[in-house]
Amino acid sequence: MKPIRVAVIGCGFMGRTHANAHCQVNHFFPELEHHPVLQVAVAHPSEKEKLEKYAKTWGFAETSTDWKSVVARDDIDMIDVCVPNNLHAEIVIAAAKAGKIISCEKPLAMSVEQAIEMRDAVEASGVPHMISFNYRRVPAVSLAKQIIGEGRIGRPFHYRATYNQDYTISTKVPQGGAALWRLDAKVAGSGVTGDLLAHSIDTAEWLNGPIKRLCAHTEIFVKERMHIETGKMEPVTIDDAAMFMAIFENGSIGTFESTRYARGRKNYNTFEMNGEFGAFHFDLERPEYLQFFRYADPDTGKKVEDHLTGWQDILVTNSEHPYMSHYWVPGTMIGYEHTFINGLSDFLKSMEGGPAYEPSIRQATRTQAVCDAVVKSAKEERWVEISELLP
To answer: The whole model's pTM is what?
Structure first.
């Protein structure tokens, strides 16, 4: 096996999911030629104690608080970026110039202009790279993609997506700091648009093709919150909630909604697609299931004459389902962490002559453009063409 010496930059939530994927990928995908080796765990000097614990837990050979020196090292093959959004661009561009393999968490950047700069640097270097939109790798979501490819949906008419949570409802929740940087616009760039809707947009364009134009509205429910770093009440400038209507290039129409004020919803990431021959619905809070409705035969277009025709729950755990042959017996589930393992396996396979990994940085730049279009549309109260931001 060929070792890939990995430096993970960031020791928070995403740093844990990525470290776990590097540790586990060869256990579940033993056919891979490459073997990730956790060489260096990297974090800001202020997180020194947390960094040491993180490195010991996941088995990193060493730690560092200087990402620039790590990127420059000859004994590092891959830079895995798991830090807040405002740090992505500088690290990714430096890694590309150094010729490193790159992994980067979503959303790609703070803005589409920044994303384009990152895209151009990575594409100029020609380095292998992956952007971690992990929900594509939920087996049920991948099965939805397969169903579309098999023509079982036919001509699409409607696409609906929601991504709702409820963890910021209390006015006592602060903004900023290591835990709540997603509520600080200077660090996150945007609120639910970049944090949650970016996932919905990536999935939608993967399943249904590019969004052509959209019209959005955003809302800030709590206007001021205490900032962890200053200890003062400061204005909240990220979007607490967002919704938009979309027209896809294939002529179908879509609705998208996201909020962190949906009491009772913890990670309610859903999508539904309705077409000429069938439909499907997915809910991340029931990730092992894909609901499917079969109306007509995709080969003949004739209505299925069956008195049992109706919505069916497909338990996506069989060996013929995406990724599942690498795990357990039918009827047993895999979890959130396995989506990162699946994604890393696809990326390593792409380096070994397999299908190109998606989403590429070019595709992630497009997702960033749609996110920016949401913010622009809400601010200017008008329809925005994606081509305005990404010619």
So the answer is: 0.96
What's phi and psi for 246, nearest 5 deg?
-135, 150
- Is the distance from CB of 200 to CB of 256 less than 8 angstroms? yes
Tally of domains in the chain? 2
For 288-317, write each residue's pLDDT tens digit. Answer: 999 999 998 888 889 998 887 889 999 999
CA distance 53 to 42: 12
What secondary structure does DSSP assign to 34-86, as a single string? EEEEEEEEE--GGGHHHHHHHHHHHT-SEEES-HHHHHT-TT--EEEE-S-GG
Two tokens at 351?
């380096």
206 within some domain? yes
Which value, to the nearest 10 degrees, does the dihedral of the CA atoms of residues 108, 113, 117, 119 take? 50
| Residues 181, 105 share a domain | no
Is there a single domain that holds both residue 201 and residue 230? yes
Largest CA distance in the chain: 67
> Residue 53's domain spans which residues?
2-135
Residue with tokens 């021959």: 277
Sheet holding 62-64, edge to edge: 62-64, 34-42, 2-9, 78-81, 101-105, 129-132
Task: Write out pLDDT tens, residues 215-249.
Answer: 999 999 999 999 998 999 999 999 999 999 999 99
